[in-house]
C-alpha cells in the first residue's frame, strides 16, 4: 500500500490571529502548515519548502500578495503550486485582480472556514490533475 504524502500549505498573512486560526484548523485537517508574516518571508519559505498551496493575504508588508503571486508564477520550479488569495479588499477587486497575478482562486475576508477549505481542496485537486 502506498503512503500518501502530507500536503503542505503555506499561510501568508500579517494578522497573527488569522495565522494562528488557519494554522490550527488546517493542521487538524491533516495539512502540514507553514506560516509567513510578510511577502518576503513567503517567497523565502516557498522557495525552500515548495508547498502544494499558498494562502496569500493581499495586503502584507515587504511585498504584497499580488507581487508574491506574480513572482511565484514566474519561477519555473514553483509554478505548479496552488495559490489562493485571501483578502478583505472587496469581492469585485479580488475577483478581477487575482487571476491577473496567477491565483487559482480567491476568498474574501471575513470567510467561513468551510468555504476556504472547499477552495483549497478544489485547487489542490485541479493542480494534481494538471500534473498527471
Task: Give a short summary of the structure.
The chain is of the alpha/beta class and 132 residues long. Helix content is 45%, strand content 19%.
How is this fold's topology laid out?
Elements: E1 8-12, H1 16-28, E2 32-36, H2 39-49, E3 53-57, H3 65-74, E4 82-87, H4 91-97, E5 105-108, H5 113-131
Parallel strand pairs: 1-2, 1-3, 3-4, 4-5
In CATH terms, the superfamily is: Response regulator
Q: In CATH, what is the class?
A: Alpha Beta
Oligomer: single chain
The helix/strand class is: alpha/beta
Proportion of strand residues: 15-25%
The SSE string, one letter per element, is: EHEHEHEHEH
Would you give the CATH topology?
Answer: Rossmann fold
Number of strands: 5
Mean pLDDT: 88
Shape designation? globular
Strand order in the largest sheet? 2-1-3-4-5
CATH architectural type: 3-Layer(aba) Sandwich
Would you write up a description of this structure?
With 132 residues, the chain is α/β, with parallel strands linked by helices. The chain has a single domain, classed as Response regulator (Rossmann fold). The protein has helices spanning 16-28, 39-49, 65-74, 91-97, 113-131, and strands spanning 8-12, 32-36, 53-57, 82-87, 105-108. Strands 2-1-3-4-5 form a 5-stranded parallel beta sheet, with helices on both faces. Strand 3, helix 3 (65-74) and strand 4 (82-87) form a beta-alpha-beta unit. The longest helix is centred in the C-terminal third of the chain and has 19 residues, at 113-131. The radius of gyration is 14 Å and the shape is globular. The chain starts with 7 loop residues before the first strand and ends with a helix. The model has no long low-confidence stretch (mean pLDDT 88).
